[in-house]
Amino acid sequence: MLLACIVLTIQLPEQPVSVEKLVRLPAFPSGTVQTGLAIALAWSLAGIVSIILPTQLIQYGLPNWSGLMLFIFVTSGVLVQPLARRLNSRRSLQLGYGLLILGYLIFTIGAGLGILRLVLIGVAIAGTACYGFTYLGGIAEVIRLSGTQSARVVSGYFVCAYLGFGLPVIFIGFISDQFGTINALFGYGVMFLIANLALGQYQGFKTKQRT
C-alpha cells in the first residue's frame, strides 16, 4: 500500500508555481481614505452604544434596557438599507453625516439627563447611518474607486471600520475614569462633530465636481 502511494505521488503532474502573493494587504487608493474615516466615525458610535451607554444606563437603574437599545440600533440600520441602496453613494454618505451628528447629540443628552426615551430615539437615528446610509454608501464608493483591486480596497474599508469601533471606546473609557462618562461623551462629541462636518463638506464639494 505504501509503495503504491509513492508511485501515484511520483506520477502526479507538477503544479504551476503562482507568482502572486498569497497574502494581500488592504489597499487605500486615492479618494478612499475619506470614506474609511467616515465608516470609522460611524462605527465609533457602535462601540459607544455597545459598551459605554450600557454602563450609563446601569447608573440610572436601567440595566435591562441595554439589550433593547442595541436591538434598536442595529435594526434601524437594517430597515433603511433598501433606501440606502437606491441612493448615489456620495449622497448616502452625506445623509449619514447628518444623521450621525443628530443621533449622537440626542442620545448623549438623553444619557446625561437620564431620559431613556431620548437615548432610544438617538440610537435609532444613529443606527440608520451606522448600518445603513454610511455603511452601504461607503462600500459602494470604495468599490467605485477600487478599479481591479476591489477585494483589497474593501478590506481596507473594514480595517477603518473596526479601528473606529475599538479605539474611541478606549479613549472615552480612559477619559471617563478622569472626568466622568457624560463629560467624556460630550468631549468626544466635539471632535465627532468637527470631523463629520469636515467630511460632509468635502463630500459635497466632490459631488458638485462630478455634476
Percent helix, as a range, is: over 70%
Distance between the termini: 72 Å
| Broad shape | globular
**Count of discrete structural domains:** 1
CATH superfamily: MFS general substrate transporter like domains
Q: Report the CATH topology name.
A: Growth Hormone, Chain: A
DSSP strand tally? 0
Structural class based on helices, strands and sheet pairing: mainly alpha
The CATH C-level class name: Mainly Alpha
Radius of gyration: 22 Å
- Biggest sheet features: none
Number of helices: 7
What is the beta-strand fraction? under 5%
Order of helices and strands: HHHHHHH
- Please tell me the CATH architecture by its name: Up-down Bundle
Regions with little confidence, pLDDT below 50 for 5+ residues: none
Mean pLDDT: 86
Using brief descriptors, characterize the structure shown.
211 residues; Growth Hormone, Chain: A; MFS_trans_sf; Major facilitator superfamily (MFS) profile domain-containing protein; membrane; transmembrane
